[in-house]
Each structure stands twice: as C-alpha cells, then as structure tokens.
Amino acid sequence: MTVLLEMQGITKKYGDFTANHDIHFDVRKGEIHALVGENGAGKTTMMRMLYGMEQPTAGRILVNGKEVHFHDPSQAIRHGIGMVHQHFMLFPSFTLAENIVIGGEPKKGAFFDRQSAADKVRELGERYGMPIDPWKKAGDCPLGIQQRTEILKVLYQGADVIILDEPTGVLTPGEVKELLAAIKGLAAQGKSFILITHKLHEVMEAADRITVLRDGVITGQMAANDTDEEQISRLMVGRELVQMSRAAREPGEKVLDIQAIKLAGGKGSKPLLDDVSLSVRRGEIVGIAGISGNGQSELLQVISGLRQPDRGTVELNGADVTGAPVRQIREQGLAHIPEDRYLWGASRDATVLDNGLMGHQQRFRKRGLIDRSSLRKVMNEWVQRFAIKTGSLDTQAQFLSGGNLQKLIAAREFAQQQPFLIAAEPTRGVDVGAMELIHGELLERCRGGDGILLVSSELTEILKLSDRILVMYEGRIAGELTAEQATEEQISLLMAGGKRQS
Amino acid sequence: MDQLFDISLFNSTLRILTPILLAALGGAICARVGLFNVGLEGLVLVGAFSAILGNHLLGNVWLAVLFAVICVMLFSLLFAYVSINLRANVIVVGISLNFLAAGLTTFCLRAIFDVKGAYYDKNMQGLPRWDIPLIKDIPVLGGIVSGHSPLVYAAFAAAILMWVYLFKTVSGFRLRAAGENPVAAQSLGIPVRRIQYGAVLVSGALCGLAGAQLSLGQVTMFTEGMTAGRGFIALVATMLGQSNPLGVVASSLLFGLMDAFSIRLQGFALPAQFTQMLPYIMTLAAMFFFKDRSYLKDAQRANGSSR
C-alpha cells in the first residue's frame, strides 16, 4: 500500500518541555491508523504539527514522499490533510451546507450560490453514505450530525488523510456506532484516517494499525489483529492496571433522603422531575443511569441547592435543607463533582491554585486573608496524589487537558471531607489512568463510610461501582436494581423507557 | 391629531434618523465581526467636527464630506488597533474613544476656530437638498421622500448594499463567519484580522457620513457634544435590529420618529425637557419589549459554544 503521509524523527519542544520526541509515524492509503495515549501524552501536539498549527523543532514531514513545511492549516488542507477537531469548528447560525462549503463556496460572480452549495453537499453526503439536510442550521442539529458535517467539510476540501481528534467523546453510543461504520466505509473507498482516542474498544473495532504514545514517545506500533486491549493499556499507562472490585458492604444510616421531588418544566411541557424519591446511605454508592437529559442534571441541581423544587423535601445528614442556600447545604455535608467541568466545575481563566481554593475559602483563611502558602502546600499534595499534569499551580485552568482538570476538581471535592458526595460524570473525557484513580478514590471513600450518588451516562461505570442502580427516564425513576441483579440489557431497556420485566 | 401627524413630521423623521441609521449600520458591521463598537458616539462627533473643518479648509461641501470620512476612518483605526492587535476589552476601548472624541473636538474647536461652545460661519455652504424628479410631484410621498440632503438617500442605499453584501456575497459570508466563530474561521484560512480591520474602517466611514449629516445636513454649524447621545441611540438601534441592516433601518425609523415626535410635542406646550425624554423612554421600553427575543438566545448560545 502506498504511504501518503510520513513523520520522520519529529521532535517538538516548548522551552524545556519536550512534547514529542523522535516520532516516526506514517499513514497508508485506505487505512485507519489509531493514535492512542493518555491525556497529555502528546497526541494533539503531533497532529497540530501535521495540520500546520505548530512547527516541529526537528524532523521532517513528508506528503506523498515529498518534504513539506506547513505554516498554517490552509497549506495542510491544500496537501489533502483535513482535521476534525475535538471541539467542533462549526458556525451554529449557518446552515450545514454553508458550514461545509465555507472557504470554497460555489459562486455566481461575487454572489454565494447557496442552491448549488446545497446540491453539492447533498450529493457529497450520499456518495459517502453520510446523508444530511443541507438547509438545516448547524446549531439545531444533534452532535452526531454536527460531527458528520465536520467530516463532510474536510471531504469537500479534498482531504485524503483525515485526522479525527477524540471524535466520540460527545456522542451517544448509537452515534458512535454510526460514526465508526461511516469511517470504515470511507476507508474502503480509499480515504485514510488518523483516529485519536483513548477509548480502546473503539480502536479495536475500527483501526487497522495502532500507535501508542506515552509522555511524548512512541511506546508501541502494531497491527490491530496482533494485539488486545490489555497490551495497549499497558503501553499507554506504563504499568498494569489494577482490577478493582466492589466489596460487599453493610450500608449505614441514611445520609441523603429526598422525598417526592417535583420540578415543573416550561409552559405546556412535561415536568422536569416528577415525584422523585431516593435515599443514599452511608457506605453505599447509588448509581443513576439514564440517557442524558432525562432529569439527572435537574435532580442534582435540586439536591445541591442550585434550583428550588416546586414540591418535595431534601434531607441531608439529618437536616431538612429543602430550598436552603448552596453554602448552607455544602456545610451540612455535601461535596459535589459537577457534571460539566467548564460550566459548573471550574473557572477557565482562573489559575489552578484559585480553582483549588474554591469551596475551601473558609479553611484557608488567616486573619481575614487567604493563606496562600498553606494552600500551596495542600495543593501540591493533590497534584502528586492525583498525578495532575500542570505547568505550575499558577497556570490558567484552561491550559489543562480535560482529564487533568477533572482530576483537579475531583481532588478538590474529595478534600471537602463531607459525608455525602455527588459524582456526576466523574470520568467523562478522562483517560484510563485518571479513570482508574478516580474510581479507586470513590470506592475508598465509600469504604470509609461516605454516601455517594453517582450519575453517569457510561453504563460500564455505573455497573462497576454502584451498589444500587436507579434508572431515570423523562424525569421519573423508571426502575431500581441491585448490583447483583442488574445487567446491561435490563438497564438499557429502562433507559429507553421500556417497562421492567419482573 | 392632524397637527400631530402630518407630512412634515415624517419628512423630519427621515432627516433626523439619518445620522442614527448611518452610525447604527457602522455598529452592525462591527458587531458582525465580533467587535461591539461602543465608540459610535465618539466617531460621529469626530465626523461632525471634521466635516465643518473640511468645509472651512477646502471650501467645498463634497470635499468636506470626504474629509470627514477620511478623518473618522483614521480615528477608527485607533479602535481597531487597540481592540484587535492589543486585544483590549472592546467596551473599554469604545468608551475611551467617546471621551477622547469629546475632548479632542472641544480642544480643536478652541485651537483652530478660537471659539467656545459652537462654531458658525454664515457664509458656509451646507449640504444641498435634492428634489427628486417625478417623485416630488406625487402627493404625500413626494413631500416625505423628496427634498433631503443626499446623505439621507445614501444612508438607505448603504443599508440595502450592506444587506446584499452580508447575506448574498461570498465575501460577506466569510465576514459573518469570522465574527461568529473566529477560531474556526482562522482554521479555514479566513483572514479574520484583516476582515475585522475592514469592518472597523467601514464603520468609521459610515460614522463620518453620519457626522457630516449632523453638522452640514441639518444645520451648518458645530457645537460641542452635538451628537447628544445619538451614537448611543444608534448602538441600541444596532442591537434592536439584531445587526441586520434591514432590521437596523426599522429600529432607526422608530427612533427617528420618536425624535421628530418629541420636537413636535414641544409645540403643544409640553416642556421641552419632558418631550426630549421620549426617545430615551422609548429605548428603555424597546428593551423590555425585545427582552426575550432571539438576540438573547443567540448570545446565550454563543456563550455556550465557547465552552
């Protein structure tokens, strides 16, 4: 098979920090080459160099056997390299057709020929088996369609090699299946893919070859047929992963007890929460499964005091906290890893130090001022314990990778030492190592007698950690299962609104 | 009621709305590239002064208008450089420009013309009034539409041209792209900065025309702070019109009408101070009326997508 793209001895340094060291990597025609590694391993840096967003410190990049130097993405695009970014680069108020043809718009004189753009886009979608409605606004489309639009955009730009950066992070399981099928179809038509991910089952399903990166160095390169998930994760993490299991526990008294919570929706719509009652005991993890948007977010907001319920009571650690201010609820015994780390969990523009301080202001107070030196001491412990990769404590939080920011938030909330913890999507978008660490910590806290409410859209996570599993559907608890009786099929059925078979 | 609504009310509406419309169009094109231009007031004020200065120096009203346009474009470059290259907060830059313009024009008025408060030269030519053949003979319509300064017609032409440009041409499409998601636009090789500079310059040119209409079209004089908040009204018109040139025409019409109305009401023995509040009360009322319209939703969505 012909080699389309090659990186020879690529090294990238930022000051003293080596992001990539002596990378040799190539892509052949019609193959799906997976690039795996933990957050911060240097995958993104490597791709930014291929796409002209960064220039290598040393080494050569060859396209079709000829050396190239890209200084901006448009040069990479001209050489047939396209990139679908992790955070989509779409214009929400533009139609899908406009989003796809931008940069190469069909024209009539100086005018934008939108009809012919729509026709071209429709034809392109059909040719590659990814149909879309060209006249729909991008902002109104589900993420799966937005992703499809991104791929069609790079195809429209004439890409032969398409870089997909964490393409499945935001997709539902069904959309992931469709995506993987679509790229396999495109590969069969001669397009090549670089698939960046840390989800190993996706790699095993789709990839032809796999390159593993750790700390900026390639630790393994093999055909997908010759390897398995264990070997890859060993190469990624650099050690064996510990198999964790839930030990049977004897739960204690109730730490959270909510009764008949009701939260009305907008005018004429269904209630967001309808008669939800649940309790969490000390030493128990209660998992809430459900497709996102079925009331989980609202439930957490009611418990943590961010939203007032219309009816019902919330009792935390023996006191009624219904409608109480957030701070009072937290002092009463709540720690909270929120579901959206950028919206609720952290301030992007604040430093790592300030983000760690949030919620701990009272603890680090000395004569009315913040005692930064002891805060620093404590935070350095967190950074070590949770292996948070950050330049320094004074780096802005936005420069941390998603997984490292999540570890920071988790460390902060664990440090609250409260008897009840909400963990909402605690491992969304984090790598295997971080996931292992956060899961281990959750089980540890539970063993220590804390009650944990775990909300996750990842079924494997729910099944692995929970003692009891509640499934939410359209604002109601659709069913409750114990860890022993729960199976993935049963939960999936309840999640989709099916009746529980008894 | 006949005394309240007549042809001359609508005629003066068109005259009064022109500076607001021109400035609001300038605000709209800036908003479309993601630079919210709070400095419209200052830009118009500089335009008004430089139009008088140009007329004084060059002795020709057309050259004076051109002079005003060039001066304001240069002045707006300051806005562009500080907010695009130095990445300063655009609101702060806009407000500083307003104060700078107020001080600068007052200072220049004293330094160049050696007068305080206002400069007036009875020999100075203002902008001519154009009687449009055929239309001027149509009853009612002719009385409203005909007999204005050329800048009144230019303002409406500019609105239509801008609409066509933004929504029908490829170049306008890319301009909107640069404003909506600059990172994505950059990744496609769209020269975001150059587009932003272009938009600010166009905005400067439009504000220059707005200023010329103020000091040469309605009267032929310059007084300190003669914009009297029109730049801010224009800003509101930009927002109310959702940065769509045709929407901006509609909202400017509303404000122009209110303004004309307030002048008219003074003839009804209402205190001038009271009637002068009318356009501003209308502005506040408009905000309430439009509070849950899509502008807010777009803003929220834009906020969300930057996560």
From TrEMBL, chain A:
PROSITE patterns given in the database record: ABC_TRANSPORTER_2
Gene3D superfamilies (UniProt xref): P-loop containing nucleotide triphosphate hydrolases
Listed CDD domains: ABC_Carb_Monos_I, ABC_Carb_Monos_II
UniProt protein name: Simple sugar transport system ATP-binding protein
UniProt cross-references to PANTHER family, sorted A to Z: CARBOHYDRATE TRANSPORT ATP-BINDING PROTEIN MG119-RELATED, GUANOSINE IMPORT ATP-BINDING PROTEIN NUPO
Entry keywords, A to Z: ATP-binding, Nucleotide-binding, Sugar transport, Transport
GO molecular function, one term: ATP binding
A Pfam family: ABC_tran
Coiled coil: none
InterPro entries referenced in this protein's UniProt entry, alphabetically: AAA+_ATPase, ABC_carbohydrate_import_ATPase, ABC_transporter-like_ATP-bd, P-loop_NTPase
Originating organism: Paenibacillus hunanensis
Residues of the ABC transporter domain: 5-240, 256-499
UniProtKB/TrEMBL annotation, chain B:
Top-level division of the source organism's lineage: Bacteria
InterPro entries: ABC_transp_permease
Keywords linked to the UniProt accession: Cell membrane, Membrane, Sugar transport, Transmembrane, Transmembrane helix, Transport
Location of this chain's protein in the cell: Cell membrane
Membrane topology, record value: Multi-pass membrane protein
Main localization (coarse): membrane
Transmembrane segments: 12-31, 38-55, 61-83, 90-113, 150-167, 195-212, 232-256, 268-290
Protein's UniProt name: Simple sugar transport system permease protein
Species name: Paenibacillus hunanensis
